[in-house]
Amino acid sequence: MSEDAPCGASVLPDRLAEVLNPHRLIFRPLLDSRCCVLALSFLLFTAGCRRNAFPDVPDGYREFAYVANSGANTVSVLDLVYLRGDRTLQVGLNPTGLAVNPVRNEVYVVNTQSGSVSVIDATTNRVVATIPVHRLPYFISVEASGHRAFVANSGSNTVSVLDLDRRREIAVAGTGELPGMAVISPDMRSLVVTNRGSGSVSIFEVAPYDAKAFGAHLLRFRAAFSGCPGATDAVILPDSAKTFVACSAGHQVMAISLAAEPGSWPARQDSAALTDHLLTFLDVGLHPVHLAMKPDGGEIFAANFGSDSMSEISTWTNEVSGTFPIGDKPVRSIVSGDNTMLWVSNFGADSIGVYSIDDGHLVSSVRTGSAPDALAFSADEHLLLAADAHSGDVAVIRTQGKTSATLFTMLPAGGRPSSVVVKSFTLPR
Question: Helices H, strands E: what count in the chain?
Answer without folding.
Answer: 3, 32
